[in-house]
Amino acid sequence: MPALFSDVDGTLLGDDELLTELRDALEPSDVTLVLNSSRPVPSLLESLANVPHLPRPKFIIGAMGTQIAHADDKLIDDFNEVFGSWSRDPFDALADELGLARHDEKYQTPLKASFDISDGQSFDDIRRLVEQRGLDAKLVHSGGDDIDFLPPGAGKLTAIGFLCVRLALDPRRGEVAVAGDSGNDIDMFDAPLRGIVVANAEDALKTAAPAGEFVYHAQRRMAGGVLDGLRHFGLL
User: Fold this and answer.
1) Is-above-0.85 flag for pTM?
2) pLDDT digits (tens, 9 = 90+) for 25-80
3) How far is Cα of residue 72 from the mean position of the Cα atoms in its chain?
């Protein structure tokens, strides 16, 4: 049973004609679609309600790999047990100290603290400061100025691994593909997962996931590139 774990904004969404082409190819196939977004599940579902061309997913991974929900938005509670008792409080305090602009509340969760990097600061500077203070988190940089603090070990790849076990998927058989367009998708591109980099992807992802046996750099953008990647790897 092949499966596609795909980022949403800029990967699936952005061109309705290409999305319709992907939907028409996926619906009669046996490919299981899982959305894998940096946005929390409620925020994602709110915007997807107005996207009629999106193929129906089986699961939704949200909040940078710290939430998993069924397509009806019911969260899988036992997944959160993976992260123990991690608290975002020290990172909220650090952001206040550094003057980082907080993202809108709909993009925040107890396990995802999201901010904009201020002028004159860099991701590397913040990462070094976190290490110097012994704070325990995974830092994710994407979209130029976006920074997210997550529990150690969290991320889109961790959630993929959880669902592969639940769905009895074996990436070693070449049946699991991932697709993305930005820096926060980098950790999904982990062989033997088959990776699809859409043509409109950020340079950070193109550089971190060079084309090769396990990674396909599509010539088309967004959903068109995802479709071409699935065909390239023989999943459609």
Assistant:
1) yes
2) 999 999 999 999 999 999 999 989 889 899 999 999 999 999 999 988 889 988 98
3) 19
Quick one: 120 exposed, middle or buried, by C-beta within 10 A (0-12, 13-18, 19+)?
exposed
Query: What are the pLDDT digits (tens) for 153-182?
Result: 999 999 999 999 999 999 999 999 999 999
**What is the distance between the alpha carbons of residues 165 and 146, in angstroms, rounded to a whole number?**
31
Instruction: Let me know the angle formed at the C-alpha of 183 by 182 and 189, rounded to the nearest 5 degrees.
Output: 90
Q: 192: cis peptide before it, omega within 30°?
A: yes
